[in-house]
Design a protein that fits this description.
By secondary structure, the chain is an alpha+beta fold. The protein is built from 9 helices and 4 strands. It has 2 domains: 90 residues, no CATH class; 105 residues, no CATH class. Helix 3 packs across helix 4, helix 4 runs antiparallel to helix 5 and helix 4 packs across helix 6.
Length: 218
Amino acid sequence: MKPRVFRDRTHPLDAYDDEEIKARYRLSRALILQLHDMIQIELEPKTNRNKAVPAILQIFGTLRYYACGSFQHVVGDGLGLHRSTVSRIIHRVTNAIVRQMRRFINFPRNREETQQTKEDFHDVARFPQVLGAIDGTLIAISTPSEDEHLYVSRKGGHSLNVLAICNANLKFTYVVSKYPGSTNDAFVWGNSNLQTLFENGDIRDGWLLGDSGYVSIN
């Protein structure tokens, strides 16, 4: 696959076919366009300066960084941008995406949602009353400049300990991603607002499935 440099602001959706787009950016053409529609207003330059970066190129640069973990200067070379500009773009796009989270990541709360979730899990393995599958995962990060030792996980690298719950269709319904890698799974769960809802009886008549790191969650 021959790399292209978008110094003339060529639209990447025009430069690559569908297969190349998914291989390079890990999302389909349709999903990238949907993402652009959702966050474009937050990203479009407020002025018409010559060096303003269009929203679509900001999104492509960020997705490329997510997909391959390249150094920012490598991503910048592909877009014809300086590394410092790429850094600002990645932060801007990431924050815009995070602000959309509640539209897509929601734990089932009303009767219709909880019943459908239970039925979906039951169809998979005939296990009753399941509201979600829970687990923690270590997400590698660069060495932080503050409290570095707290981010060293049991595996030795620097990371965040991310708690995630998904439904039977493998869709995330709850995520906590603020704790350093040295934190154990039970602590992350015990300090989550979802645990409080279970504990107070606001969520009842259902289970979360997890390993031994999560004891007596119901």
